[in-house]
Design a protein that fits this description.
Blueprint: E1 2-3, E2 8-15, E3 18-25, H1 28-34, E4 39-48, E5 54-62, E6 65-73, H2 77-83, E7 88-92, E8 103-104, E9 109-110
Length: 113
């Protein structure tokens, strides 16, 4: 869902029926890809940058077509683990307060008890 105040989109990264992470993206191409029921495929090699950062790369595949390659800093271990676990990615409304630990039954989100 769109946050009109800052032009960002929020997505729940769901692994085994639980929200593992919430992605906040400001790039329209990423928004379109994440909104299209993508398959996330981890790349085999890490990306090492001159500034010392290391990223894990992922291919984002929609309807058997590679639509983009993205990378996240390996220091974000929870996000890397979630994206590496064949997640389901669902657009969410930031005002709903959905966060890691919520559950998703395929239709609705439920806050932790």
């Amino acid at each position: 869902m769109t946050n009109l105040n800052s032009l960002t989109w929020n997505f729940a990264v769901i692994v085994d029926g639980e929200v593992a992470q919430v992605l906040i993206v400001s790039d329209e191409a990423q928004m379109a890809a994440y909104s299209s029921n993508p398959t996330i495929v981890p790349l085999l090699e890490l990306w090492k940058f001159p500034n010392g950062k290391t990223h894990q790369g992922f291919n984002v595949v929609v309807e058997n077509e590679l639509v983009m390659t993205i990378g996240y800093d390996i220091s974000d271990e929870a996000l890397i683990a979630a994206l590496s676990s064949n997640p389901t990615i669902i657009p969410i409304n930031p005002s709903d307060g959905i966060a890691a630990g919520w559950t998703w039954d395929g239709t609705n989100f439920t806050a932790p008890q």
